Amino acid sequence: MAIGGLALDVAGGSGNIDAKITAAVVMTCVVVASSGLIFGYDIGISGGVTTMKPFLEKFFPTVLKRATEAKPNVYCVYDSQLLTAFTSSLYVAGLVASLVASRLTAAYGRRTTMILGGLTFLFGAVISGLAANIAMLLSGRILLGFGVGFTNQAAPVYLSEVAPPKWRGAFNTGFQFFIGVGVVAANFLNYLTGNHRNGWRISLGLAALPAVIMTFGCLFISDTPSSLLARGNHDHARVSLFKIRGAKNRADVEAELAELVKASQLAIEARAEPFKTILNRQYRPQLVVAVAIPCFQQLTGITINAFYAPVLFRSVGFGSGPALIATLILGLVNLGSVLVSTMVIDRFGRRFLFIAGGIQMFVCQVAVAALLAATVGAAGDGEMTKGYAVTVVVLLCIYAAGFGWSWGPLSWLVPSEIFPLKLRPAGQSLSVALNFAVTFLIAQTFLATLCHFKFGAFLFYGGWILLMTVFVVMFLPETKGIHVDYMYQVWEKHWFWGRFTKSTST
Questions:
Q1: What sign for the dihedral angle of Cα 257, 263, 264, 266?
Q2: In a 3-state reduction of DSSP, which class is residue 100?
Q3: Which residues, in sequence order, are CB contacts of 259 under 8 Å at separation 6+?
Q4: pLDDT tens digits for range 328-351
Q5: Which of 246, 287, 445, 496 has its CA 20 to 30 A from that of 201?
Q6: What is the rounded CA–CA span in Å between residue 52 and residue 69?
Q7: What is the mean pLDDT of the chain?
């Protein structure tokens, strides 16, 4: 289906392979998607503990002192580079880990990389919960970052390779769904432990629980057939494919296996440095999209909402408890919207959700900026009544819903499904690394940006949302329902990218 003549679906692009939904593929994808728990839990827990008085007393006393001033500038209360380093240090480690993970997934498989990520995150959680000083606290964060980097690289690729092509979008959104579950669980725990002297230790230490859940689950699944074939394990790949597709669908499974073998042979024959090959002109469309989407995802400002929502809500007039409740509501709205995405993503397609969600987020960002300008003002010393503060929460909930059913799940799905097999690990690693890099920059600078830009910070992100929506309209082809090994066809038939591609599946 074309939208404005700019995108094309490819009839028969899946190679006439009719992969069925089976109990085995559902359970496998649930286990893999649960790796999103550790990322989501960390996002949610980080923002909450930074509002806990005992935590600030121990590690960031100057921030606490500023917060207790008689009439602080609401935009600048939590502006501390050390405090933001606590949040953003994880993403530097995640950036490095995601690049390393490309080699690991190619050499040892997607499953092994996820297990390694879970164990690394587990150790990081233990160190964070036992932290006695800022150095120990940041060391734990770095280990958490390595764990998240490994799993965020491997899990979306695993889901895209295993899910039936017709329902790949729905299965892949499971990763974002579990990120949302992790955020909500963390927000709820923050609320329960917020007034406890060691509440921050409980919140940080319990990050070990989602790590144990996903790591334990990964022990009982096999690697993807594509990964096994790429490493020469043909017999294991056959067993794995029959397990997830079902023995009753023998003809379809044999046909799919033959296509996977062909793709893996082409990848093996074209052995070359993937990070060099990905720069070739014929892969320019995939590279641009894989770079743009994760950068744009973070420039929506959503991570700032997740990290600093409790801080933001306290700044506009909520107390610690109400701020955490408002943050919990925000997380629940986001989680519900991911479920909406799961139901409609393979019906309406990626482009429609990207565009509709972008418009929704843009309107909300502009409205929040206008509300802050009218109440708190540019100087940051105005008063915001409870009614206006509740309106801010409502607008941010609508904004979070727009993200949850569009840029949230799709930013993991699209980069993981558009590359050929030989470039898939490298392409996903590059995409995840850029996601972490931009997240680090935004997380490290947001509180300072809020302090200096005032309400203009929300207009800044609104401008980016408008730009990324135009990018999708012009340059992103529709990929729903197409087998990952036939994805090259959408680039060949695109109005702009067709000039870069060759008529080949390699």
A1: positive
A2: helix
A3: 15, 17, 483, 485
A4: 788 888 889 999 999 999 999 999
A5: 445
A6: 17
A7: 84
Among 439, 412, 406, smallest CA distance to 428 is for: 412
Lowest pLDDT segment from 151-155, 229-233, 361-365: 229-233
CA distance 402 to 465: 11
- The residues, ordered by sequence, that sit 6+ positions from 303 with a Cβ below 8 Å of its Cβ are 43, 439, 442, 443
Measure Cα distances from 381 to 73, 77, 99, 440, 503 in Å. Answer: 6, 11, 45, 29, 62
Of 169, 125, 161, 116, which Cα lies nearest the Cα of 143?
Answer: 125
Q: Which of 6, 47, 131 is nearest to 324 (CA)?
A: 47
Q: Once rounded to an integer, what is the mean pLDDT over residues 23-48?
A: 90
Q: Please state the separation of Cα 332 from the chain's center in Å.
A: 17
Q: Note whether 113 and 154 are within 8 A (CB).
A: yes
Structure tokens belonging to residue 293: 């989407």
Is a pLDDT exceeding 70 seen at residue 321? no
Q: Among 211-215, 372-376, 420-424, which range has the highest average pLDDT?
A: 211-215
DSSP 433-485: HHHHHHHHHHHHHHHHHHHHHTTHHHHHHHHHHHHHHHHHHHH----TT--GG
Residue partners of 454: CB distance under 8 A and separation at least 6: 75, 372, 373, 376, 378, 380
pLDDT at 2: 37
The predicted-structure confidence for 168-201, as pLDDT tens digits, reads as follows 999 999 999 999 899 889 888 988 887 888 999 9
Q: Are 367 and 336 in contact (CB under 8 A)?
A: no
Q: What is the dihedral sign for C-alpha 50, 306, 339, 154?
A: negative
Residues 348-371: pLDDT tens digits? 999 999 999 999 999 999 998 888
Interatomic CA distance for residues 196 and 193, integer angstroms: 5
Token code pair at residue 406: 């569009």
